[in-house]
């Protein structure tokens, strides 16, 4: 979990924000992610690092996204950080070392939950540069990603740990589905029409 007290006032040309419940949120998210992809993305491993823990509702956004995408076995997308095998403060450095060894020159998207202003809760931010896990709770952890996606799950400013524990799971789950669908669309960009995945149903191949 990270924390941006002035999350939308910095580098406006390099940051986009999308309400997770907007009708076209998935397509907008995919479009914004595509803008950040390098021209040689086809030649580089595409890695998703989903940060968080299943032990805290608010901090489960990353593992939920990772689980949704991992279960669909999307070709050419390497997903790390799930509900079963989360990436968090304790194992982050170890996991990053493994990923760097296994996927040199990878293009990495870091995904994490964050806290922000009241009016920004439910917003998904896509930004250039790495995410800084643990910044909101004064933890010094390695930065993650060439770009990052952060979901604002609750309000910052007071007893952040308690706020995360009392975050509504329905909000976090809906945000996770939007992010997962957006990333899925990016990986399927060669198709003429994208159909959002219904995560509640089994998919046919």
TrEMBL record:
A Gene Ontology biological process term: proteolysis
One of its Pfam families is DUF1256
Recorded hits in SUPFAM superfamilies, A to Z, give: HybD-like
Q: Which domain of life is it from?
A: Bacteria
Q: Report the GO molecular function annotations.
A: peptidase activity
Q: Which UniProt keywords apply?
A: Hydrolase, Protease
Protein name in UniProt: Spore protease YyaC
Q: Which source organism?
A: Cytobacillus kochii
